[in-house]
Description:
Blueprint: E1 6-10, H1 21-29, H2 32-38, H3 44-57, H4 62-70, H5 78-87, E2 91-99, H6 100-110, E3 116-122, E4 124-126, E5 132-134, H7 157-167, E6 173-178, H8 184-189, E7 195-198, H9 203-210, E8 218-219, H10 225-263
Helix pairs in contact: 1-4, 5-10
Amino acid sequence: MAGNGIVVVFDFDKTIIDCDCDNWVIDELGFTDLFNQLLPTMPWNSLMDKMMKSVHEQGKTITDIVEVLKRTPMHPRIVPAIKSAHALGCELRILSDANLFFIETILEHLGLRECFSEITTNPSFVDEQGRLRIFPYHDFTKTSHGCNGLCPPNMCKGMIIERIQASLEGNKKIIYLGDGIGDYCPSLRLEEADYMMPRKNFPVWDLICKNPMLIKAEIHEWSDGEELELVLLQLINMISAEENSAQLISVDCKLQTISASAHALPQALPVPQ
């Protein structure tokens, strides 16, 4: 298949969906004022867990949260783009600072869950009382993840990209799509053969534009779902065409070597009578 040598890593908020799913849920359930009041007092990830407690105490159910998630705004070309990349044979992954319950609920509603081989995000589950619990991917209350960059305390996406890179077999190429500050660190870890797709005029784009030479990967920006689909599928087809061309050249060289070797064989000496 065309995309067998390609791993596409998507951010989720403002990349696959057109909003921040945490904000979307809080706003739609009517808890924006409380969220804004508490935001200066604790890390975002801890605040979301606390907000889910308040949501539960006010009588909102998991069903209410699911119905809100099903209404999450997104560009109409995102679903076809993901399905096309998957059909072409690319391995698709999600790397997000949202949480597993929100992401999986949205993907399942869209019929996209089976397209992704891995979702790396903050863990979450519904407890016995029916309350959604949200925990940090990296427990920053015990140790720091050690990244001195712009990453939040609960997740360094750059370190996760390095783990993905180490796990890949062969010469697979990574295409990374993201929009936020947290997507800058992984962009710095990509190799020359990889591709970075930052969302234009969003924080990661602004950071990259300050010094593009720090990014080894090829940079291909996009601004909305239509451009995301166009650029992503063009890159997949281009990479596939280059790999096919390299394979043909390799086979041709081998055939030429065999042919040259045959002509170079010495003539048989006559047997004396």
